[in-house]
Each structure stands twice: as structure tokens, then as C-alpha cells.
């Protein structure tokens, strides 16, 4: 079986090799500070007893699982701490497929490209449901696409790449569709702290044995390198997921879990509010420049990505490389996210050089 390497790596490597200064707007690595309590937790961990440097519980440190469970209104036994949201989604999709209730995974178009990649890796079949021009997903379209072969419906809200935020009625309807077809709704909520609309709704708001929620602290605490995520399973699905996690990873690293727990307990709400305010400013700065360049674009309601379409400049890999060489701005080709946005480019607003990048684009396309 052959796997496709995500285009992220190709674009980043191309930008690194460029013979000019390039503003990186490729990956979602927040450039702001992590919580101070997290740094303090890491410093404290270095002084702990030697036994704390050995294997931890495979499913995650109990105190962290209990903290997550209390915040999400579930039992700690339903929580598996994972190697980032990437592994959490892998475990969720694998668990959906191994139930022998079909081999088809319903994905949105546009789509975060790791979902179709995981589908292929797990031996599932991809089927796509188009979103509207704002990135919203119509449950009626999902219902029309679903069948007895549907094993899972995978959604991401707030969304990468469109910035859409699904309201409560959408999430409730998706859970109902999953129940009707004996499928699993996999709800990736990794950008939940970057809801700019006030409309975010978690799939956990529906009490169902047909939904798995995944998340991570990578984005919310600006620690993508720590790889601390989690998945929340229905009680009847969690044990096999724990076994798969143990076989794949043995356990997640202890020091980052300890530091995340400290940060969860001690970080005030203002930390997250300030980061959302910073993101709103960047959205305004960037979209103003896109207006000046005559571009069509999506205004994110959440997450931190903007998709833009420039006249006579389709979102191909070739054009992304050209933009790096000629404008000094690195984005992602729209074709990486599915057929429906192949004319678009995606830019991540997680760089202190957003204003500079915006000026370069306005000059280049203006």
C-alpha cells in the first residue's frame, strides 16, 4: 500500500531552500507564549524522583485524565491521553472501522488532508461531502451521502482550512445521522479555544454511544511540539482503543502531561482571551490586504486560517512555489484540501509577520 506524503512538508522544505526571505504561513504553529504555569511545571518536573522518568500509565496520567474528564463532563475511564490530536483521530477512526459496520469514512470537502491519509492507512474508503462557500456543512447532504457502509463521519470545528464553526444544531444532527446508520461521529475539536464566533458546540453536548471527541493542547497552549492530546470514547468503545494505543505508542511522555496539568489548573481565562484578541487583529489586518489585492477570501469564524482566491492564480503547488520565489510568502495550495478549493490558497495567521506578509501579497497581486 502506498501512502501520500502531505504537501505541508514539501512546501516547508521549498520555502527553507528559497534564496530570499520568506514569511512562513504554512503550518499552524502558534507563535505566542505558552502559559507560564506550563513552563513552571516543566522546571518542577526536572527535580522529581527517578521513578517519574519511567513509563507512565499507558492511557495517560490519572490526574490529567481526571482533570480533562471533569472539564468535559465525562468519566475519566473514557479518556485516553494521546500523542497529540493526530493519534487521537487515528484511534477514533480505527475504532469506527473495526466495528464491522461498514468501511466508508465520510469526510468534508475541503478537508484537512491527514483525515483521508489516515482513512487509506486504515484500509477504509473515502467519500466526500461538499461544504458551502463559507465552509458550513449541511447535515442533509451528509444524510444523503450516508449508507449502511458508513463507518464514520469525520468533522473538524472550528475548521481547518475554512475557519467555519458548526453550530449546535449541526452537531446534534450529525450525531443523529451517525446513530441512524450505526456509524461513529468523530469530532475533532482541537481549535475549540479559537472560536471567534461564540457559536462553537461540542459533540459531547449530545449523549450518545455514536460519537468520539478528539482534542489536544497543541493549539490552545501553543505547544505543538509537546504532543499531548486526548480522545473521549463512549464506555463501550474505549477498551480496544486503549489496547491499540498501547501497542502503537506504549505511553505518552510524562513531563509534558505533568506540565499541561499544571497549566490547566493555574492558567487564567485571560490567557486564552488575549490570544483570541490577537488572532482577531491578525484576521482584520490580513483580510484588509486581501481586499487591496482584489482577492476573494473566507473570513474565519474560528481556528486561524484564511483561504483566498486570486484572479487567474489557481491554488496549485506550482503557484505556491512561485509565490514563495516572487512574493516571499509561503502558503498552502488549495488542491491539498480537496477538489472544491483547488482554485484557492490557504494562509495560517500564526506568525508575527502577518502585516508584512499582507503587504507583500497586496503589492504582488494589486
UniProtKB/TrEMBL annotation:
InterPro entries: Aminotransferase_I/II_large, AspAT/PAT-like, PyrdxlP-dep_Trfase, PyrdxlP-dep_Trfase_major. SUPFAM superfamilies: PLP-dependent transferases. Its cofactor is pyridoxal 5'-phosphate. It comes from the Archaea. Residues 21-361 form the Aminotransferase class I/classII large domain. The keyword Nucleotide-binding does not apply. PANTHER family: ASPARTATE AMINOTRANSFERASE, ASPARTATE AMINOTRANSFERASE-RELATED. Homodimer. This is Class I and II aminotransferase. It comes from Natronolimnohabitans innermongolicus JCM 12255.
